[in-house]
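To: structure desk
From: M.T.
Subject: fold request, one chain
Message: Could you run this one when you get a chance? Sequence is below, nothing fancy, just the single chain.
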Amino acid sequence: MARRRWSGSLDVTEGRIGRQLLLLCVPVFFSSFFQEAYSLVNTFVVGQFAGKAALGGIQATAPLVDLAVGFSVGMGTGFAVVCSQYFGARDDERLRASVHTAMTIALVGGLAVSVLGSLLAGPILTLMGTPTDLMGESLDFVRLYFGAMVFSIVYNTGSAVQRSVGDTRSPSIIVASTCVVNIVLDLVFVAGLHMEALGAGLATALSLVWGCVVTLVRLTHVDGPWRLDVRRLGIDPGICRVMLRTGLPLGLQSSCYSVSNIITQSTINSFGSTVVTAFGLCGRIDAIVWMVSEALGVAVTTFSAQNFGARNYERMRRGLRAALCLTALVVGSLSVVLLANVRALAGFFIDDAQIAELTAQVMWYVGPFYVVYSLYDNIAGTIRGAGESLRPMLIVLTGSCLLRIVWQLVIVPLDHTLHMAMLSYPITWVTTGIAFIFYYRLVTGWTTRTSARRPISPHEASWRPPAGRIGPRVPKFDWHDEHVSSPARLSYRVH
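Reply: Done. Structure tokens follow.
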């Protein structure tokens, strides 16, 4: 069994692999549930009390929001890999320095994103071809959203830091409270005051502020070397270089995903507001799939990074095999359930038979291939946990992003139909999955190559606490109060 040094942390370099993956994964899943719950409630409240235009306006902003959020989440994940490696190597001093470096970068970068996003939102929505009948509602929502983006980025980075040391419980509890705040404010501003998309944006912004504040309070009071001290905020140049080397590829990858989705959204926009709404609803309905996929991705990356820091390479490989089996079983089962009930689920959000039918059509193009995406994401998570971000980024950029962009800009104009537009998802997922399998199976010695990039020295990696020192033990958690990546993820999540 894993040993415990500090409250909330989980050392996964020892003990039963399956159990520890679940201890990492299950809390993240349930926290993701709360995250998606308030996204779904947001969609429901807007759809029921604000109408079709407000709902479509919010859905039309989804790729733009994902662009900013995806970059911040990717960077935070990259920073967390470095923190996790130091945790696995028991290097408390550099773990402490890495936490303060990461939070400083998040604060400065978040302020820049908030300012630029608020100023450029209108022109970008215009370039995306947002329907004129949705533009006003879209602008109302997205400007408030970007105004609060600094809080989202700081929150995401703080949550990633906690997860890097195996503490998936604290971010989960925080996001659960954030979800409650957002739901209450949605009911007040949208259902009560009839502020439509503006009310939804205001509710989202205030909930992001809440999540950020609570996260910072938690980090400043935690018992461990990852405790945040505002007096120590600053950038360690050496650690910053390592973090950027790991985090930038992940951030760029997430952003490129969003760029490809922006171009896809532009194609979807050309089919009119009804199709826009149906496309967005598909992303709400399949949220449970992304909950599981993201939870497993966080678990695999954390597991891999800690064991890489401890040089437990064979344990990394065994962990990946266990994660792949679990992913195939759970994601495959969920896909079948969603495909069988998509029309009824669409009708829950909005009473429109045409939208329900279009939502079902969209789902049938992506649903059978969710498992493909989730499986290759696990492989990528293992490789990234070893500090190797560049090659996975290149695979994803080529197989998913670039191919999808070319498909939307070159192939779809030849046959301008929803059918042709949606084919881009299964084609790019399968292509990327095959590429990752070849990389992992045929390109041998990636752990050895990436070890040269590690932010720790060999003697540090082999160090273990002296006899009698108490190590991390498995934390307790409730099976109903946990979360994943971002309270900022109010957008659809077709990847």
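Reply (cont.): The two ends are 36 Å apart (CA to CA). Let me know if you need anything else for the meeting.
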